[in-house]
Write a structure and sequence with these properties.
globular; about 15% strand; about 35% helix
Length: about 290
């Protein structure tokens, strides 16, 4: 039996997709093709941390002639030029995973300037045509990608320091137009979610209860009660159910083959997910706009 959220399990998922009559398309293709395939899967990856896992995943997909979209943050530990070039050269789309309202603390003019400068960072590597907001609830350089990072967050909470942000980065497009930057679509706000079935592995889980900001409130008719608990459930759904348009969000750093690494990451994700549930409850009590 193959453990879930390992690269071996992801290889199985890719093999199933490749054997079926689905076309796998990038976000750019979804926004620009004159006629979409009758049956397709949009395959998207948010590279939040540890980008070396994105390269492994991109190479694996290439073995199955699958092209997907990789959204990179521009923080130092993620924006690795050589690695991005390798993924782009494999035929995958590269996009910008922006978090500018968080970076600008809600200052819209400052945020759009940051966006412009960061889009320029990709020039010379590839042309950015689509974007996706980053949905971390943490402010500044705080990170929950390690036990030590979680401990730092906890100490800041005890000190009364600001730890969580309520900004939704996609809200910047209520004031500005991304098309002015040559962007053809945003991975959340430009999608008709009544038309495509959105499934995310956020929190090392296909269950949407752990999502904070990458939440959509629409589902194609007839599939609103479909429950996916594991990648096996997802594979079963793809094989059996008559669903023509699927949108998969997969985070590469959540899929690991080394058993010790997998166990550590699973424990960390369990801690983070329970923290998210608590934060979700707190935001709900306080009427925060961060969940939508």
């Amino acid at each position: 039996m193959i453990l879930d959220f390992t690269l071996k399990k992801y290889r199985e998922l890719c093999s199933v997709i490749a054997d079926l009559d689905y076309s796998v398309i990038t976000l750019e293709e979804y926004f620009t093709l004159r006629k979409l395939p009758e049956k397709f899967i949009i395959l998207r990856h948010d590279v939040d941390d540890e980008p070396e896992y994105a390269l492994i995943m991109a190479q694996l997909e290439n073995m199955y002639n699958i092209r997907s979209t990789y959204y990179f943050r521009t923080v130092e530990n993620v924006f690795k030029i050589g690695l991005i070039e390798q993924i782009h050269n494999l035929g995958h789309e590269i996009g910008y995973h922006y978090e500018v309202l968080d970076e600008a603390n809600g200052n819209y003019p400052k945020a759009i300037n940051i966006f412009n400068k960061n889009v320029d960072k990709f020039k010379g590597l590839c042309e950015i045509k689509t974007i996706a907001q980053h949905g971390s609830p943490l402010v500044g350089q705080l990170s929950a990608t390690s036990i030590s990072g979680i401990w730092v967050i906890f100490k800041n909470i005890l000190k009364g320091n600001k730890v969580f942000t309520n900004w939704v980065n996609a809200d910047i497009w209520k004031e500005y137009d991304f098309k002015e930057f040559g962007i053809v679509g945003e991975a959340y706000i430009s999608i008709d979610f009544k038309d495509v079935y959105y499934i995310s592995d956020t929190g090392m889980s296909w269950n949407n209860k752990y999502r904070l900001k990458d939440v959509v409130n629409q589902t194609p008719a007839g599939f609103d009660k479909f429950n996916i608990e594991s990648t096996n459930d997802l594979i079963k759904m793809i094989k059996i159910y008559k669903m023509n348009r699927i949108y998969l969000l997969v985070h590469p750093d959540q899929w690991r083959d080394n058993l010790q690494d997998w166990i550590k990451w699973s424990i960390l994700k369990h801690i983070r997910n329970n923290g998210k549930l608590g934060l979700k409850y707190f935001w709900g009590l306080n009427g925060s706009h961060a969940i939508r």
